[in-house]
Specification:
With 184 residues, the chain is mainly alpha-helical. It has helices at residues 7-14, 29-38, 50-69, 73-86, 112-131, 162-183; strands at 17-18, 23-24, 90-94, 102-106, 136-138, 147-149. The chain contains 6 helices and 6 strands, in the order H-E-E-H-H-H-E-E-H-E-E-H. The strands form 3 sheets. The protein has a two-stranded antiparallel sheet with strand order 1-2. Residues 135-177 form the Zinc finger CGNR domain.
């Protein structure tokens, strides 16, 4: 697995909460098991104590994306460095599914939350240092506040998904039509 792909762990964790809508999909150990399953990690050793830990990590990771998107890369890096220090990773060489030897990141911490935090932080650090802090974004479509990593060739991504992009474009089109109708 490419190390940069681990940034998806951070994106998925942050996007378990939709502050603009008041929803939170990280309330139970079952929610954590689903999150782990979504990134292809076996949901082992999930404890009740992992829920508040992952929620705290989620808040810090959201701050990394928000700071980067608002032009405060030094703040984003400081928060991310704090996470990396608190949740270190230990790379492992592995071969599976007929693939050649490659590196996987593993957190050696005891709990699921700590291990997930270690891998998410490292993946995001790889993306930030290879693409730049300006590639960490927060969706421009209101009320969505999902985050994303912009890996586009022209640094043009503004939305977390095609759905949000379409919704925002339709809203802008309708607003322009309404404005023209009132001036005619």
């Amino acid at each position: 697995m490419e190390l940069a792909a681990y940034a998806d762990y951070a994106v998925r964790l942050v996007n378990t909460e939709a502050p603009g809508r008041g929803t939170d999909d990280l309330r139970t150990t079952g929610d954590i098991a689903r999150l782990l399953d979504a990134v292809g990690r076996p949901p082992s050793r999930v404890a009740e104590s992992d829920v508040p830990r992952l929620r705290a990590v989620r808040t810090r990771l959201r701050a990394v994306f928000t700071d980067a998107a608002e032009g405060r890369p030094a703040d984003a890096v400081a928060t991310l460095n704090g996470l990396l220090a608190e949740y270190p990773v230990h790379p492992r060489i592995t071969g599976h599914d007929g693939r050649p030897w490659h590196i996987h990141l593993a957190g050696d911490q005891a709990g699921a939350a700590e291990s997930y935090a270690a891998v998410a932080g490292m993946g995001l650090a790889v993306q930030l240092t290879s693409l730049g802090a300006d590639r960490l974004g927060v969706c421009d479509a209101a009320p969505c506040r999902n985050v994303f990593v912009d890996a586009s060739a022209n640094r043009s991504r503004r939305y977390c998904s095609d759905r949000c992009s379409t919704r925002a474009n339709v809203a802008q089109y309708r607003a322009r039509r309404k404005a023209r109708a009132t001036t005619d």
